[in-house]
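Convert to structure. Protein one:
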Amino acid sequence: MNRLVLVAAIVIGCLVMVPAQAHERNDGGYYTIVDELGRPVFMTGWKVNVGDQCLTTDNKRYEVTGISGDTAHAKFIGEVNLSAYAPSAPVRNHAFAVHLAPRVASAQGNKVAIYHTHSDESYVPTDGKESILGNGGIFKVGQAFGEALKAQGLQPIISNAKHDPHDNMAYERSRRTVADLLKQQPAAVFDVHRDALPAEGYATKINGQEMTKVQLVVGKYGPTGKQIEDYALKIKAAADQKHPGLIKGIFFAKGGDYNQDLHPRSMLLEVGSHTNSRAEAEKGIALFADAIPAVLGQTGGQPGTPAGATGLGTQQAGPSGASKSIGWIVALLVIGVIAFLFISTGGVKEAGAKLKRFTTTEFANFLGPKIGRKQRRDDRDDEGDDSR
C-alpha cells in the first residue's frame, strides 16, 4: 500500500511539474482581448488563459481576468516606458579603449539561428492553403529573414528541419533542432511562425509598402520567463525606433516556455497571418531584421560589409563594456597613485620628485637582483663554452 501511495505521489508530482502549454487554437477561431470598457485592444490566434498578458502596439499592458467564448476580458496594468529598454547610443573611443579595443572580440558574436516549430504554416493568398505538411510557406519567410540579417552584417543559421504534425508535441520535436543549432553558438535564436487572424489584424503600410506586422510571443513559464520578457521589450524598443508600428505587440503566455529556456536570447515571432500574402510577410520580416543588430549590441552593417566588421568591441563601433571597464580601472589606478603621492608629500614638486625616485632608483633596485642573476647565468654559460 505504501509503495502504491509513493508511486501515485511521484506521478502527481511529475504532472505538476509539466507546464500547461498555451498553444495556438486549432478550431479556426481566435481571441479578441477587450479592456474594462469592452474596447478591443489585442487579437491573437493563441489559446488565451486567465493570467496571460499582452502589450499593445502603443505599449499599453493588459492582463486577462476572464474568458467568455472568443472574448478575453482584461484589466489595464499600465503603460510601459520602452525608453528604458532602447539601445543606448554608441560610445566614442577614449584614450585607453583605443588600445584595448582591437583585442576585444564581439561579446555575443554575429550568428543568428532561425527555425520553424510549425513547419506546415502557410499563407492562403500565396500558397493556396494554410497548411502544407513538410513544405510550408513559412520556410520562405524564414529565408527572407536570413537574407535581411545577412545584409545587416549578421550571419544567419537557418534550419529547415520539419516538425510535423502541427500538434502540441511540435515544440518537443523542435527542441532537438534548437539543441543542434546551439552547437554553433548563435547570439540569438528565432522561431518563426505565422498567426491565424483576419488579414486586418496584421496588415500595415510602412514607407509606402504593404506588409505585415510582427508579433512577439514570450513564454512566462519557468525561471527564464522574466529574462525573455525583458529581451522582448528590448526588441520592441529597437524596432519602434527603426520602424514605428511594425511590432503588433507582445503576447505573454503564462503557461508556456516554447524552448525559450534553452537560450537567453530566444524569441518566437508571428509574421502576419494565414490570411495575409507571403510577400507581405517577407517585407515585414525584412524590416524587422533592421532592429536586430542594435539588440545584439552591434551596429547595423550594410550590404557588402564583412560580417562582424562593425561589431561590438571594434574601433568602428566603439569599445565594448569590457574594454571600457578596464580603461576606467587603469585610469582610476593612475589617478589614485597621483593623489596618494600628492597627499603624502604635500606638494606637486615633492610628488614629482618622489615619483622620479621610484621610477629610477626603487624600480631599478626591484629589477636589479633579477638582472644580476640573469647576468651571472650568462657569464657561467660563456665560461662553459670557452672550456669546451
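Protein two, convert as well:
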Amino acid sequence: MADEQTSAVATDESRIDAKVTCEDAGPALKRLTIEISESAIAEQMETTYDQLTEEAVIPGFRKGKAPRGLVERRFGSSIKSDVKNQLLATAYQQAIEDEGLDVLSDPEIPGIEELEVPESGPMSFTAEVEVTPDIDLPAFDSLEVAKTQREVTDEDVSEEIENLQRRFGQMTAGGESVEEGDFVWVEASVYEGHGPAEDAEPLQHLPGTYIMVNGEKAEYKGHVAGIVVSDMGKRLLEKKVGDEERIEMTGPASHEDEKVRDQPITIDLKIERIERMQPAPIETLMAQSGATDEDDLRSKVREAAEQRLEREQQQAQHKQILDQLHEKVELDLPEKISGRQAGRLLQRKAMELAYQGVPQEEIQTRVAELREASESESKHQLKQFFLIDKASKDLEIEVSDQELNGRIAMIAMQQGRRPEKLRADMQQRGEIEQLFLQIREQKTLDKILEQAKVTEEEAKD
C-alpha cells in the first residue's frame, strides 16, 4: 500500500511495548496491524492480578489476603478478558497517536470476540478505522456569494399562523374510514425479503406510530419506520380500523441498516385508530406567546418569521459556499457509505431542520426522504462533512457549552418543550455530538463568508 509504514514503539510509564503497521485500506480508511509484546501482556496481567488480589473478598480469608493461586483459579477467565480489553484499548489509542491519525469513529476489529490473551508470545490484532482524508482548500476570498433581499409579507404571517394552529392543535377521533389529511395510528413491522413467513422476526417492530395520510397535493407520499412509501396515501384512503396493509418494496438506498439498504423488504401495517387534527384556536396561540390581542400575535409571528428568513438567507449563502467548495476540491471517498456514516448524516440533517423551526412531522418526512437518496447524494454529504471539518480546523473554530445550551433552548422553544428535557432526550439518542457539529459547521461557514465576495440582488417574483 502507498501509505504503509511500520514503527516500533518504545515503553515508558504511560505506554505499552507494541509494534504497529499502518496502511491504506481504501479511501479515508486505514488498517492498523498491532502486535503487543509478551512482556507488555505479562506486565498488564501482573498489574490486574495484584489489583484484584487486594480487592477480592473470598470466604475464609481477610480482604486482600487470599493466596494468588486461589484468586487465579476463581477469577482467571474474567481477568484475561479484562486484560485483553485493556491492552486492546491502550494499544489502539497509542497507535493512532503515534501514526498521527485524525479518526472519525470507533474502530472495527474483526474477530475481537474470538481473540484471546496467549499463554506465551505476543498478541496481534487488526483494526480498521475511518480517518479524515488529506484536503487542500481553495482561498476563501476566491469564493463569490449572492445575497437575495426579501421581506416578510402579510401573507407569510397568515400562513405561519395557520401552521402554528396545526402544530399546536389536538388530535380528535376521525371518521369510520380514512380520509385525506387524517393521521392513522398503526402497528408496523418491517421484515427482510418479500412475503416473510408467519413466524419471521421483524427487523423493526413499532407497536404504535402515526402515519399522516397525504393526498394528491403531496403526491400521496407517506412514511413509516423512517421509510418513504410513494403511494402510502392511496393505500390507506378509505381503510377502516382493523384493516391491514402489506407493502413489498426495496429498502431506501441510504438506510442505516445494511439489511434494509437496497434490499427487498416487507412492511406490514394494522390500523388501530383513525384521528384528525383539530387546529388550535387563535386564543391558544395568544396565550402561549403572551400576546395581548390578535394584532400583537401577528407582530410576534412576524418577528419570528423575519428571524427565520434571516437564517434562511444565511443558509442560502452557506449553500453557495459549499457548492463552490465541492466544485473546486477533488476528494477520494469510501467506495460505499457505511450504515454508521449514513446515520450520522441523517442525524445532522434532523438537527439542521429543527434549528430552522421545521415542525417535527415535517422533519420526520424530510429525513425519511433523505433515506431514499442515491449513493452519490450520500457521498456528496460525506464529502461536505470532510470539507467543513478541514475548514473548521484551519480557521480554529470552537463551540462552547454556552452555545450548545443556547441552541438547545432555541429548538426547545420552537417545539414547545423544556430545554432540560430536550437535552436529556438528545443525550439518550446520541444527538449532542451532531448538534455540536452543526453549530461548528455554521460558525465555519459564517467565518468563510466574511472572507468571500458578497453581492446583493433583489428577490425574483
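The two ends are 56 Å apart (CA to CA). The mean pLDDT is 85.
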